[in-house]
Batch of 2 targets.
Target 1
Amino acid sequence: TRTPVNVTVTGAAGQIGYALLFRIASGHLLGPDVPVNLRLLEIPQGLKAAEGTAMELDDCAFPLLRNIEITDDANVGFAGANVALLVGARPRTKGMERGDLLSANGGIFKPQGKAINDNAADDIKVLVVGNPANTNALIAQAAAPDVPADRFTAMTRLDHNRAISQLAAKTGAAVSDIKKLTIWGNHSATQYPDIFHAEVGGKNAAELVNDEAWLADTFIPTVAKRGAAIIEARGASSAASAANAAIDHVHTWVNGTAAGDWTSMGIPSDGSYGVPEGIISSFPVTTENGTYKIVQGLDINEFSRARIDASVKELTEERDAVRELGLI
Ligand code: NDP
């Protein structure tokens, strides 16, 4: 039998955590034959609710779930972690300036990065979901100098999945017919969902749609503002779809992208496509054997260039702000 994989989830008692844990335990994160140990990290106020979720996990009698540990100590929570899903974050509240938000999250992600550095397994893979996800990932990465930087990633897979769904609806295609879509930049309103290299049933998506006004005025804003539309409709932020995207992100990272396709991940830039080295920005990537590679050589037209640059500018400003705050 295989050795169980240690999966740590922070913010485990939150709504994304609630949608996420059952799918990890049932084998959707890593595969149907991979046993898991769950480590639930919460702040003290969240521990009791996390215990309740753990009781429900027990009651599912998942064959792959070996044990569950609940803690508010990051050193314990990340001990031996192979995969860490950093979901808990400090939400932006009314009247909060960006600097306040970044420093509140620095107080969470800096110590978590250090705890990962000191306690996680050598093969640790980190996905940051909690917002501002890209910059939180940068803070954690900077606090973990002994961990290869490329193990710190931020989630843009929900944006990627949203874009696929919107493009499928527009073209009448099945989602499974859509390949090579890209989210560039920040997981924020400036993100750029790019269909110029995407394929719909083997045909170029941009040529098939052939409607730049739809792209600029409908598609891009619909994808970028989908989170707000869901809050408006549901009265609560997206949780199941965010959890699903986190599952997809890690599953693809570990198990590989299909031939002839790629995915989108927020990763430390190596300078490709003019994105400054070191910032955590979303790129088109292929994955294989637990590692990822940026898809190279794509032709970036003017329409795309302006939008990638705008999102990257926001990321460099966030980086400068956290540098100023001494968080990186
Ligand atoms: P959620 O579980 O709904 O969200 C958690 C984080 O995910 C937020 O930062 C949220 O950002 C982010 N997120 C990213 N993408 C999405 C998306 N598409 N849709 C919705 N959210 C998204 O928050 P809850 O308040 O329900 O739960 C948070 C939990 O985290 C609480 O139990 C709290 O106790 C815990 N926590 C734990 C910490 C720790 O372990 N040290 C630290 C801080 C909190 P956004 O705010 O922009 O919606």
Note: The pocket of NDP is lined by residues 10-11, 13-17, 41-43, 45-46, 87-91, 108, 129-131, 133, 158, 227, 237-239, 242 (CB under 6 Å).
Target 2
Amino acid sequence: PTYDNILVETHGRVGLIRLNRPAALNALCDALVRELGAQLQAFDADKAIGAIVITGSDRAFAAGADIKEMHGRTNPDAMMEDFIGANWESVLKVKKPVIAAVAGFALGGGCELAMMCDMIFAADTAKFGQPEINLGVIPGAGGTQRLTRAVGKSKAMDMVLTARMMDAAEAERANLVSRVFPADQLLPEVLKIAAKIADLSPVAVQFAKQAVNRAFETTLAEGVRHERALFLSLFGTPHQKEGMAAFIEKRKPNFQ
Ligand code: HXC
């Protein structure tokens, strides 16, 4: 398919999606969010792809939902279209790992999109924020929930109520991002990490993602039971035999 608002590349077994509305700092208009959802679904269905990276430009990952588009929305329209549920949550439906590589602004819906991904890697230029309060609204794509789980209550309240931005160093200290790289190394480093994951057992990777995500949805005892069931079921896969045989034979495993 051809897209107007995203660029799509593959790097070996890694699928890369670049948000691409430079004139609007990658503001997430409906069309962009629809295209992103369609391509995520396509990569998820493609056996040649093992991991997915979403990135923006040097200046902005995404400066939020498109304010010019939202401005005219009426309450019944917004509810009837289910404009958040229908497309924004497409990231959450992907079974393969989805990695956000964030440089520049990740604000509002841009920060929320990054937080829907499985991990966030940041350039030292990254700036995260939930400035919706300045617009007379609040985060609407999970920001109040995911930011709070990531950085705790006081810092989440600070971000959501004052609309201030958090730089990359603070985001790393606060556990919002897993690692920070110099801006010119962000994408190459993230592609390397994604390539490593993409070469692993696809079923083990999928189960690992599922198990970690379960930690946010359930009690400890239930989460541990879920993990154990997944762990045991992996002993029925050829990947477990291959992975363990490769270790014993002192060679690299081949999971593909
Ligand atoms: C539409 C946007 C935009 C946005 C930037 N632009 N952000 N257009 N929606 N969210 C446009 C500007 O209008 C401008 O277009 C161009 O991008 C460049 O932006 P500038 O403001 O000129 O750049 P700069 O001075 O460098 O400031 C950068 C900025 C600022 C600090 C990121 O653009 C900003 O504050 N943007 C809005 C951030 C925000 O409030 N995000 C939350 C949105 S609400 P023109 O045509 O004028 O050159 C949200 C809710 C999600 O995300 C809920 C789930 C659906």
Note: The beta strands are 6-11, 14-19, 51-55, 60-62, 98-102, 105-107, 119-123, 127-129, 165-167, 179-181.
